Amino acid sequence: MKSSNQINFYDFGEIEIVIGESAHSFPTHIHQSMCVGLITHGSVEFICENHKDTLTKGDIYVIPPFTPHSIAAVNGRKYVYIVLCLRNVINGIYRCDNFYQNNIYEKDFIALAKSFIQSRLEYSFDLQALSEHVGISKFHLIREFKKSAGVSPYQFYLSEKVKKIRQGLVLKQSLSDLTFALGFSDQSHLCNTFRKFMGVTPLQFNYTYKICHSSAGENVAKM
Q1: What is the rounded CA–CA span in Å between residue 42 and residue 39?
Q2: Residues of 49-60 as b/e, b for ≥16 C-beta within 10 angstroms?
């Protein structure tokens, strides 16, 4: 599916800059990096940790690492934005209490659940198998996982698949290889999933992703 969004990615290693003109609505997701954004035209509905705001031209927003958020176009109209993504800031200039609470002190079964999901990205999501693996009920698992990770196990599963697609694209893997390796039914399924979270198709990402240093591929996993 062709995307009308124009989103450019500039990777400088520890910093990535994203400049976009879009009418896309990004679903709830998380980043490993800290993101600072600026709306330069139009307006968006911004939801961060269940707090909703309407952002317009000149508004700045900050998304700490591992914080659930979504961004949606208002009335389907295009908006323009710039986002600065800062990697490896946890041990440097920025300390996020939410990060420490959710990722260093998370319960053992949440870490086990994440590891299980990450090890089975080539398979369909199976909540029953996940529940049995960590040894707690599905209801309790979903509640505790969302409380710790900010997203549901299934949302985490999808975001991990998209991260793997992005890594593969940066490393010049073919769509057919990625489709097979990540268990998508076909390339169209992979492309639609990627576009839902990234706002552009894999081919557009390949075209607009600019390597501005010598080791971009090593850093893409941190997004």
Answers
A1: 7
A2: eeeeeebeeebe
- β-strand partners of 69: 29, 48
pLDDT score at 101: 43
Phi-psi region of 204 (alpha: psi -120 to 50; beta: other; left: phi over 0): alpha
Domain ranges across the chain: 6-96+156-222
* Phi, psi for 199 (deg, rounded to 5): 85, -10
111-125 per-residue burial string, b: 16 or more CB within 10 A, e: under 16: eebbeebeebbeeeb
Q: Looking at domain 6-96+156-222, what is its CATH homologous superfamily? A: Jelly Rolls (2.60.120.10)
Query: Cα(142)–Cα(196) distance, rounded to whole angstroms?
Result: 22
Q: How far apart are CA 29 and CA 69, in angstroms?
A: 6
171's CB contacts (< 8 A; 6+ apart) are 217
Query: Could you give the 3-state DSSP secondary structure of residue 127?
Result: helix
Q: Is 97 exposed, middle or buried (0-12, 13-18, 19+ CB in 10 A)?
A: exposed
The distance in angstroms from the start CA to the end CA of the chain is 24
Token pair of 9, please? Answer: 């990615």
Task: List pLDDT tens digits, range 164-223.
Answer: 999 999 999 999 999 999 999 999 999 999 999 999 999 999 999 999 875 544 555 455
